[in-house]
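Hi P.,

Sorry for the delay on this. The queue was packed all week, but I finally got your sequence through. Input first:
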Amino acid sequence: MTTTTPTVAVGTQQTDGPKTTAGRVRKRLNSRTATLVSIVIAVVWTIPTFGLFISSLRPEDEIKTTGWWTAFTKPQFTLENYQQVLFGRSSSSGQLASYFINSLAITIPSVLFPLAFASLAAYALAWINFRGRDWAYIAIFALQIVPLQMALVPLLKFFSTGVTVAGVTLMPAWDLVDEQKFAQVWFAHTCFALPFAVYLLHNFISQLPGDLMEAARVDGAGHPKIFRTIVLPLITPALAAIGIFQFLWVWNDLLVALIFAGGGDETAPLTVRLAEMAGTRGNEWQRLTAGAFVSIVVPLIVFLSLQRYFVRGLLAGSVKG
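Then the structure:
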């Protein structure tokens, strides 16, 4: 008996599948040229911040007469600018220390509240069946197109006069003073952040494997336990990504804080004081540069500390398997 070995024509099998558009783009982004361009962009983007930092450390006469790049040939550095800006007692100094604390008091709750409410709402919209769920999701999605400026006056009226329907007071005016006005800013930032946060987290949570949820229900777990033990650990990257965006938005905000917290020393954030310094003492560059760098230190720390979670959150759901 003779046996014949089947032959396969050359070219009938391909060890590698056809190159897709995503594959070609990924290959180009990993090339040396793309890496070099990324480095150049990063350097160009960082130069202004580096110049701001160098200027904040230079004496007043030096910063007003020469450019920051001359510090490399005639290095003269001092911390007096930061001392005056943060702890100066004169009216011309920044006195940013108290405003820095106000910014933290505004920003931290304004980040935590939307994340907590949005994660709960997103889980309910994704995994709990109830009447009107789809319509509720559509309404939340549609709220993203409402400009923030259109909601400022109604929300301010809500705080100052309360809610009255047909002569019946459903909610009285808040009548908050001094540090109590922080609650108004927290409420406003939470309302403005919820539609976008719910939308993103819903898309993330709805893609979680249904087998996990089913297995947990078989083991007797209810929705609170499923959310706490399964969903929260899996959505940590998404929460970190949204939290970074919200933190940067609230920390750099001027309009909402100025309207709902006022411009007093008790509640005004760092951005309000920096705007006043730029408007009334715009020629004191040494204090403006120090104050500006103080305002960007915390966002930089937050972003760098959560960078790995931020990248995971952006890439979540892009690749299956």
